[in-house]
Amino acid sequence: MSDQAEPVVQFVNVSYRIDPQRTLLQNLNLSIDRGETLMLLGRSGSGKTTSLKLINRLLVPFQGEVRVEGTSTTQWDVVQLRRHIGYAIQEVGLFPHYTVHQNIALIPKLEGWERARIAARVAEVLQVVGLPSEFANRYPNQLSGGQRQRVGLARALAADPPILLMDEPFGALDPITRAEIQREFKQLQQRLRKTVVFVTHDVGEALLLGTRIALMESGSLHGIYTPHDFVHSKDDHVTPYVDAFRMSQQILAA
Amino acid sequence: MSLAILVGVPLGILLTRRPALKAIILGTTNVIQTIPSLALFGLLLPLPWLGVRADRITITALVLYALLPIVRNTYTGIAGVDPPVREAAEGMGMTSIELLWHVELPLATPVLLTGVRIATAITIGVATIAAAIGAGGLGEFIFRGLAMVDTHVILAGAIPAALMALLADSALGLLQTFMQRRNH
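The joint structure predicted for all components is written out below.
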């Protein structure tokens, strides 16, 4: 079904609208390669989150199709599709009545893994996201924001999905925790080589974590850049982002 | 009571899956709730199979009364699940049933139990009145006492009925606290 050269996720002429007056995404064409970290960068309402939700079929295109591993999302069995794709969101959405262990173990359990394998996997992913194993028995309300976000990431990784969707996962964290988690995520990604689609409005984050940056504007894709090209672009849609980022850097340098 | 839970909880779940039915079902149960209990007994009396025996009428009326708080609280409880929690659950590939069983029902339990508590209190109250149509029970002492103007007989029915209501309520209250503690 999938060969190496084929994009893992492909948007083909995708439009999405709520009603005829409100089109959230206009004719999107985009290919995401295996193992890359594609950053969807843009302002609020530019269609980043909409694009992301089209990949795991939380939304269905109005026109065109989204292909995952070469198959249109509407042709996939929706449960199979979603278990093939890890999903981490800003609000995390941990199950408050479950311990950290139970949160992470849920999908492996539903997939019918054996107890020993689940326990080993939970220990493994907790270590991957940098949480000590004694956290397994805590409940979400006993964790800090950063710890919750790590658990959310661990849960998304639990069943070892080849694709990872992340919707501003570090957006609600304090700057120090965010920087720490970003750095760790970068190292993690260099090791795991998942295909990651990452929504952000933070230029610094996009430059730091992305192999490519897709700039979204009012429901369309404006362009795709490597971090290097992005910084040096003369495009007047790109320069405001870079300027804003430079400004904060200059304050540091001064 | 358990019959009302058996009907009410699935109805409440149905409402979260088919919001179009919400107005109809909540409206109907609401109307039933508004009918005074004696009048409801009266309305059920002429019905073919049901109206023939007092116990059948009583059980039907009790279930109908208990329905509203249970249906409404099941619905409210499930609808009150934090949207990101539901989004995460759907996004990670849980089926509708798995979502219900692992996430929605456990999180809705405290609210759902409140509904059961209210329903229980109502049920005991209505059951006492059922003596008026000859269904027997503690209400019979009350009515007989009223007829004979005998306070002792009235209290012989009223005190156990009140105790029963209080006991059932506090038992359910305890269960509720226990469930809540388990959830945190």
